């Protein structure tokens, strides 16, 4: 039984994104928990979801003249507050390792080189540490910006048959690259940069294509909204038989995730469940961007105090969820508003300088 929803927010996808982000944390604690062996596939799910949401939100605005520069500025402002916080926490962790002479410490010269690049949301040029040694998961946010630029400058101009051809070509590349392997992996380091580009490019482009086929209005309320939520959890917690891991991963990236997103994007939860779905959506990005450095700090402290994993890990995950929700409601909007105002001030100053220097900005050409 279905009725019309009063909101255009895709709340089922919000809930799925939050659950997937929590399972990324569980995956990074795999040495202790062994509960989400396929948690890394959440990245492919996130890229697909991003393609759907970005195209749904920004295609009309880009067609009305937002421009690539304006679009990328908005995307950077959206992503940067938690990147900044995650990199600073990660840098503090690296400094702590140096102070206690941790065996995995990053030498001061390398840290001083890597930090400014990571603060600028750019990969460190140093080999051997991964693209973002201060906060590892940010590698996928770097590729998010790359495919965002690709979307605004290229994908949006493609007709659907052309975009379908590109998706099929990249899908074939995924099969050729990962067939016979035990898992879809690659992207966080320089040696696998091309893999990260292929994973993000395929999933994001497929999401853009899917967005063109989805209804533009509000999703209907459905009693079946919870099915894709349960499914995304199950997908990331499955442990395929030996020798079938790569086949499982490919089937999820190429078909499983698109089917789940297609089903979920058409259904919203009933009003009684919208609050929970909204909270899961709100915490998904901050918990993904922030959990990695504190996880190592918490694990080190737990070992020092002799706390068992079954005690400190639930407290850590629950605490990260609560902190993420608070930051999403306070820190994030405040810093985004400040960044927006600073950029607006900078643009106004540039315009005033041009006028003072006698410069003339020509009007935009009319469409033929």
Which short descriptors sum up this protein?
368 residues, 14 helices, 70% helix, globular, disordered N terminus, disordered C terminus
Specify the number of helices: 14
Average pLDDT figure: 91
Number of domains: 1
Taking pLDDT < 50 over at least 5 consecutive residues as the criterion, the unreliable ranges are: 1-6, 355-368
The counted number of beta strands is: 3
Work out the radius of gyration.
22 Å
Question: Main beta sheet, described?
Answer: 3 strands, mixed
Coarse morphology: globular
Strand content: under 5%
Note the gap between the termini.
Answer: 49 Å
Helicity, in percent?
A: 55-70%
Which sequence of strands runs across the widest sheet? 1-2-3
Order of helices and strands: EHHHHHHHHEHHEHHHH
Computed structural class: mainly alpha
Describe the structure.
The structure is a single chain. The protein is mostly helical. The chain has one domain. It is 70% helix and 2% strand. The chain contains 14 helices and three strands. Helix 1 (11-28) runs parallel beside helix 9, helix 4 (68-99) packs parallel to helix 12 (292-305) and helix 9 (226-237) packs antiparallel against helix 10 (245-264). The longest helix has 32 residues, at 68-99. The termini are far apart.
